Amino acid sequence: MGLFPDVQSTLQFPQPLYERYRPRMIADFIGLEKPKKILSKFCRQPMESAFLFVGPSGTGKTSLALALCEELHAELIHIPSQHCTVAELEEALRMTAYVPMQGKTFWLVLVDEADQMTEKAQLALLSKLDSTARPQKTIFVFTCNGTATLEKRFLSRCMTVEFSSYGLRNELAKFLAEVWDREIGHSSDMPDAEKPDFERLAKNSTNNVRDALQQLQIEILAA
User: Fold this and answer.
1) pLDDT at res. 10
2) The pTM is what?
3) CA 88, CA 110: separation in Å to the nearest integer?
4) Domain CATH number, residue 98
5) CA-based, 20 to 30 A from 137: which of 108, 162, 207, 214?
């Protein structure tokens, strides 16, 4: 499944563009060449480990973690933003220890906005991220916008992967044009003056793919 997944016509409520066009496979992401290379190689030889995805909002950190889970055929435990408490962690780790995996090889524990974790939650993770006490067959992925609030001991237990939108504008503008053509259908018959300025949309979104697709959705509704 690539950048343009099949959209079921039976959906009562169509999904927003940023969800419909969320890439499902690592290779399908725009830009992010280094993170894609790292995770593609990791998928060939996966191991119990912890990743920290660091970068601006909208650069694909959570989506790439979900794609990693998909390619590993892992069982997902997703702790959403600002929900990473000691109680949530204990429940997640209880599942990895006692709940049978449904034909999967690994658990993937995804913690969004880890920089919003409580100090107690970070401390509770320290022993769990050590090789001596790490849950078996478990991969942790933490996402964050910055590391200033994270414990140095926590950081030392994670493999940090930097996400950046630098140099993404041309690729993003091209992607927006492709989405426009697919959604409008008769785009080839339209004068260029009636089409959005895709480069401007990419620039105004500061290369945030999610925001750019939100802006494009407005343009499609207005077309």
Assistant:
1) 46
2) 0.83
3) 12
4) 3.40.50.300
5) 162
